[in-house]
Amino acid sequence: MEIDDPVTNGNTDAVMTESAPPFTPSPPVPASRSSQLTESLKLEHQLLRVPFEHYKKTIRANHRCLEKEVASVVSSVGDLADSNWSKDVTVSRLTSLVSRLQGLKRKLEEGSNVENLQAQRCRARIDHLDSADAENITEWNNTKLKRILVDYMLRMSYFETASKLSESCNILDLVDIDIFREAKKVIDALKRREVASALAWCADNKTRLKKSKSKFEFQLRLQEFIELIRADSYKQAIQYARKHLTPWGATHMNELQRVLATLAFKSTTECTKYKVLFELGQWDLLVDQFKQEFCKLYGMTMEPLLNIYLQAGLSALKTPYGFEEGCTKEDPLSQESFRKLALPLPYSKQEHSKLVCYISKELMDTENPPLVFPNGYVYSTKALKEMADKNKGEVKCPRTGLVCNYTDLVKAYIS
Amino acid sequence: MDPIATVKDGFNQVAKRQKHYHSISQAVTDRAFEGFVESLVQILTKNDPKTVLTELKLKLDSLLPINHLQESQKETNTSLTKFEKVLGKSDVFPASISIDLDHQLVDKMLVEYLYRQGLFEVGELLIKEAEVEVDDQLSEVIARSLEIHRVTEPLKEKDTEPAMRWISENSEKLKEEASKLELELVSLKYWEILRQRKRPEALRFARAYFPKFASLHSVKIRKLIVALLWVRDLENYPHAEELFPLGWEEASRELTKLYYNLHDQPSSSLLAVALSAGVESLPRLLKLIRVMGLKEEEWGEMKELPVDLELGDEFRFHSVFVCPVSREQSDVYNPPMMMPCRHVLCKETILRLCLCCSTRRFKCPYCPAYTTASACRQLYI
């Protein structure tokens, strides 16, 4: 069954937009590599996105800073010119402006350096993706494997192991240990029922969160409000609401109203609608929401990459034979732990017969056709010929012990 | 169009624009700086601050290419957004079923992988950080990997002593594959000695180790001995590459495989095998899910995948017979049957062709021969 792309059905998933015209003519790429690259590039989204987000943030911050400074310097000059200070005052004012400009220049240079470093990181990763070709494909895949493992370790918070592994395998610039450490700090704080770090994180990533219309900050503020109510500090709660909750009122009026109503109830209320707001489980919801926002920001999958690849692999390897006794040790499904993991997964589908010789473990194809014993057991020609050469033309079936002559064997035609 | 080239181009655009922006911003600050300094000097020498300042203000307004700055900023921003589009949206990633993977199992597999790769420190760290329970199976794996590491690590320094010792200790169990490997190691070591131009030592080494291979591999041994004459010019020894079909690294890998086979263990980390299978099959799986319009967990609820994910042959561990007529996989209840004309079909197809009557004749779908169901033999693959 061929998979054809559907022509209908509003398949709105993002497809690699290759609309940007090439700026330099590149040599024609063989179709197989191109399609494989497209797919694998989609899966590597996370790799490129993280350094790019940092780079973008720095660029934008530098833009804003420069704009502000230039504007203020120009306006100060304007003020000075319009006002009527004495010569000395003017001179001192002007000198301070000059030193301000010097400071600005320094800041610009520093900013530019930081940007360059980040741009380098981005480039290094793009180059890494580009470097996969036929000769070093095994090594490249090896590196990919290690990257997947580091990603898993980071998400499980095994930070030391992840750093040691990245160091030992020289993949430090292909992994992002720092952002996960930051995330862990925020999550730990939330688990301790403190919103400060989470709010700082939101402030740090304000523009991005606004673009995705996230209401995470709103939820954090609501939770703080509820905590104030729980501590019975109603006045503070109202002040807090005035300061922090009103800006969100325009967009999230219903929720705001519901939470504000808790002012009328105490934290030990039995009314279910409001009781749920006071439950400690709300903090866990916040942790989950943070994880979601975090992953969305950096284009990461919610699950570790390892889970995804492992499940795909297990399903592709799952055959009924894998669960039998006497299954070869090389098959991952021969081991109990893998079988457990593969239990809920679908079996793989086989389209064509593929016979593996019991003796030599080689594939039986037209160059090495299957030979059949009188009792129906099948082995490859090469293996049986070797056996016959060593035993004066006699062959023995390893599974049943039947002995016969090589000439008694019959070739089978399996398509 | 190579997608990576597109990404690269997009990124280069961004970098170019940003560089441009920086040069403009530098020009702005420099010019402002000069203007200020000049005005300062003027004020200090002359006496009328107001006119100087108004002059400065006018100068600034005309000199400073603030418009350029803003334009450049805008351009950078557009190239940023374009690049983001090229990167594409964070794509469909449904390939996880809602059942969480038992991470304790995964952690154990991870420890095994690390030890097999020789990353012992990392393995220890993991055991500590993940609080992995080191049961008997795991400690056996650890012990084995340490043992084989002691043998293969010296090979990196081209020291074949431990490897040779291990092979000779286990020679009866290893038999053939080991002797080929032994020859390879011996030849590699000999070559290394020759490269260091230690002729007498090479000769001694040859006398000690070559004799037992002399009968079966006489040609190779002869070539190796003759190489003694080429000591000064070893790179130009004709057909040198044929002498070492494996090389140091491959030989080390083969040795590791042999070791694990001897102890009835899989020759490579099973986690690595499963993950490599995943890496190879995931693109097709994602395409399948997208084409079928499945949601996240739904793919896991299928009993069998509808499409062949086409893994490479290195992942083929079992024979599979697929009947060419019914396209069904054979199993114990539906085995392959060979007809007298040597073509093979599954039992159910044959029963269908002969309408369940074992003496009724039917024609083979592949050749003009007629046969009956009772004449067919069951095959055991």
Attribute tags:
heterodimer, A: 415 residues, mainly alpha, 4 domains, three-stranded antiparallel beta sheet, two-stranded antiparallel ribbon, 7 strands, 4% strand, elongated, disordered N terminus, B: 381 residues, Herpes Virus-1, 3 domains, two-stranded antiparallel sheet, 16 helices, 5 strands, extended, Rmd5_dRing (chain B), LisH domain-containing protein (chain B)
Q: How would you concisely characterize the structure shown here?
A:
The complex is a heterodimer of chains A (415) and B (381). Chain A is 59% helix and 4% strand.
List the helices and strands and how they pair.
The complex is a heterodimer of chains A (415) and B (381).
Chain A: H1 31-43, H2 45-82, H3 87-130, H4 137-155, H5 159-168, H6 177-191, H7 196-204, H8 206-211, H9 216-230, H10 234-245, H11 253-260, H12 272-278, H13 281-297, H14 305-317, H15 336-342, E1 355-356, E2 363-364, E3 370-372, E4 378-380, H16 381-390, E5 394-396, E6 403-405, E7 410-411
Antiparallel strand pairs in A: 1-2, 3-4, 3-7, 5-6
Chain B: H1 3-45, H2 49-63, H3 66-87, H4 103-116, H5 120-130, H6 136-156, H7 161-169, H8 171-174, H9 176-195, H10 199-209, H11 218-226, H12 240-243, H13 247-262, H14 270-292, H15 298-301, E1 336-338, E2 344-346, H16 347-353, E3 361-363, E4 370-372, E5 377-378
Antiparallel strand pairs in B: 1-2, 1-5, 3-4
Helix pairs in contact in B: 1-2, 1-3, 4-5, 4-6, 6-7, 6-13, 9-10, 9-13
Distance between the termini of chain A: 17 Å
What gross morphology of chain A would you assign?
elongated
* Total number of distinct structural domains of chain A: 4
Shape of chain B: extended
Protein name (chain A): LisH domain-containing protein
InterPro entries (chain A): CRA_dom, CTLH/CRA, CTLH_C, Fyv10_fam, LisH, ZF_RING_GID
Subcellular location (chain A): Cytoplasm
Domain CTLH (chain A): 179-236
Structure commentary:
The complex is a heterodimer of chains A (415) and B (381). In chain A, the strands form three sheets. A three-stranded antiparallel beta sheet of chain A has the order 4-3-7. A two-stranded antiparallel sheet of chain A has the order 1-2. Chain A has helices at 31-43, 45-82, 87-130, 137-155, 159-168, 177-191, 196-204, 206-211, 216-230, 234-245, 253-260, 272-278, 281-297, 305-317, 336-342, 381-390; strands at residues 355-356, 363-364, 370-372, 378-380, 394-396, 403-405, 410-411. Chain A has four domains: 45-80 and 87-131; 180-302, no CATH class; 307-343, no CATH class; 353-414, Herpes Virus-1 (2-Layer Sandwich). Chain A has 415 residues and is mainly alpha-helical. In chain A, α9 (216-230) runs antiparallel to α13 (281-297). Chain A is built from 16 helices and seven strands. Chain B has 381 residues and is mainly α. Chain B folds into three domains: 3-89; 104-292, no CATH class; 319-381, Herpes Virus-1. In chain B, 61% of the residues lie in helices and 4% in strands. Chain B contains 16 helices and five strands. Chain B has a three-stranded antiparallel beta sheet with strand order 2-1-5. A two-stranded antiparallel ribbon of chain B has the order 3-4. Chain B is extended. The model of chain B has no long low-confidence stretch (mean pLDDT 81). Chain B: This is LisH domain-containing protein. Chain B: It is found in: Cytoplasm. Chain B: Keywords: Cytoplasm, Metal-binding, Zinc, Zinc-finger. Chain B: InterPro entries: CRA_dom (IPR013144), CTLH/CRA (IPR024964), CTLH_C (IPR006595), Fyv10_fam (IPR045098), LisH (IPR006594), Rmd5_dRing (IPR037683), ZF_RING_GID (IPR044063). Chain B: One of its GO terms (molecular function) is ubiquitin protein ligase activity.
